Amino acid sequence: MKSTTTATDNTGVSTESEHGEAADSLANRFTAFLLQSQALKFGDFTLKSGRQSPYFINAGAFNDGRKIATLGVFYAERIAASVSAGTLPGDIDTVFGPAYKGIPLAVSTAIALTSMHDTQIGYTFDRKEVKDHGDGGMLVGTQLRDGMKVLLVDDVMTAGTAVREVVPKIKATADVEIVGLILAVDRMEKTKDSGRSAVSAVEQEFGFPVIPIANVREIFAAAEQLTDAKGQPLLSADLAQRAKDYLAQYGA
What we know:
Elements: E1 5-8, E2 14-17, H1 20-23, H2 26-36, E3 40-46, E4 52-57, H3 65-85, E5 94-97, H4 102-117, E6 122-131, E7 137-141, E8 149-157, H5 161-173, E9 177-186, H6 198-206, E10 210-215, H7 216-223, E11 226-227, H8 237-250
Parallel strand pairs: 5-6, 5-8, 8-9, 9-10
Antiparallel strand pairs: 1-2, 2-11, 3-4, 6-7
Helix pairs in contact: 2-7, 3-4
Region (Disordered): 1-20
Binding site for orotate: 158, 187
Catalytic activity: orotidine 5'-phosphate + diphosphate = orotate + 5-phospho-alpha-D-ribose 1-diphosphate
């Protein structure tokens, strides 16, 4: 017996599926949230790399309390699932968000883990410049100590630059174990200088898992099930094909 699940919010984005379980998957729910927040857009976009992309993700769209709180809930859900699966340890001491975009991610994720998953956890972020007065130092929040387990959070990884900048800062502060990195979206694209994705390159270089809430293939699959307030598909057949062509050319 087929069941249909439909959800609509005040942005007019609806999720329709012949299977309620599929519509309720993390990737589907997260894709709907990205669209509702206008953090995910389909069209023609020139990326910093010069590539012409049929989609764009703008983390700056999470610009109010409701959106950033909801985003933290998604990060916490992915973390809890990864702990249950054994990919991440259950005794993480603090969530670290690289300045500046990672700061609200670390705070909202720590709040969601504490309030919804009964996980007492700290949050930490770095300053761009060392503070030489007051409490001083390079870090804000839970201070790092030898032996701590630290989980990184970031939005979208393009080349892994932010990770390569922040890991030495963390290691210079204390002898901690970085247990993983949670991303909002894995673009699954080859870097310019290799056939590997940035995620794969970072995992190999640093030895910890990089775990997205959703990858771009999951997002496109979910978007094909979404409709606007008039019941029209949000992802047209033309856009869906362009997405496939883009990943065929640049996907890792």
